[in-house]
């Protein structure tokens, strides 16, 4: 919208940014040293007459921007009066090429001087000063509590950098820092101004949505950065769909309130197709180098797998569709087990384990569900757990330790009703003797399959 006048003014102000070589208007493509990452922004600003390249076909992206250069560029971007004239600053003379823009920007409240009333036109502009400049110039008012570890809390600097970040213009260095005292380079200046002028360049627009997931917990804190050290900027609720731009460690950068924010990936999950056909995922706990509990000559991973195979076979006999996260002595991470089931659109997940205790007297069967999500899924998970528990206790003749609640990973942040069975205690002689016998393994597998079938019968009646 400022385009027309710039070409004229650019001629009069062609000496701005002059170092040893005169800058000229050329296309970014013809400049030898514009980084690809910023080529579109630089091209845009050259096209708008706001920055120029040098006659030796360079842009000098790493060069620092002085305060007089910054005022000139922002003055052009705002279409301010750049006619040279006397200024309010004793150290900015009328003859300085930037005097008109400095004075205009000062009168507009876009720039300010130092406490001693000087402007220090030849000083480098810092990244912190640049935040004030752009926030004032483009009247950015929205805040979202985004902070950086190297910006002091409860300062006006924190506020302007928050505003600049909320607007999708600044994103810091990607490690939670902003470097407010660092002199800003031409490339970074160009990116910030381009983003401020044209939302097509801003952080959110540039990012591609790589996934859509669903919040899997009742209330999920949304933070300004990828750790719990960052401020909470809001909350999401179970079932909310989030658009994900990228992952950083165990955190996901999501679209949030017109900007971006971060959530922990433990509490988001794949979306599930509710119309997919019935499919049960059976998960034999542990495997390979991860043996799980062991005692009385038994290793948990083997007991789990033997019972899981029986469960699978009975489910097939009952005409139910079944997949196994592992069907031999291999190891999968907890997330891989959940992902495997979700990717194949399973609609029920049952993880099979055996228990251990410091006391040899601890004995019996218990089945877990997760209530972290206070939802239909939690309700179904509890039902599933109860049906399995009842069948197992009856078949094994073991002590009934009941249905319990716990946020185990494989039954917690998952979109499907999920239960985790503890068949009995390897540390208890009575339980261990049953779990070591093929007779009871068969009974246990059948009981779990019957419990799952009970669950589907119940579900269909709903
Ligand atoms: Zn286990």
TrEMBL record:
GO biological process per UniProt: cell wall organization; peptidoglycan catabolic process
Gene3D superfamilies: SH3 Domains, Zn-dependent exopeptidases
Alphabetized UniProt keyword annotations: Cell wall biogenesis/degradation, Hydrolase, Signal
GO cellular component, one term: outer membrane-bounded periplasmic space
CDD domains (UniProt xref): MurNAc-LAA
UniProt domain SH3b: residue ranges: 210-272
Record-annotated SLH domain positions: 25-84, 85-148, 149-207
One Pfam entry name: SH3_3
SUPFAM superfamilies: Zn-dependent exopeptidases
Leader sequence residues: 1-28
InterPro entries hit by this protein: MurNAc-LAA_cat, N-acetylmuramoyl_amidase_3, SH3-like_bac-type, SLH_dom
Protein name: N-acetylmuramoyl-L-alanine amidase
Organism: Halobacillus salinus
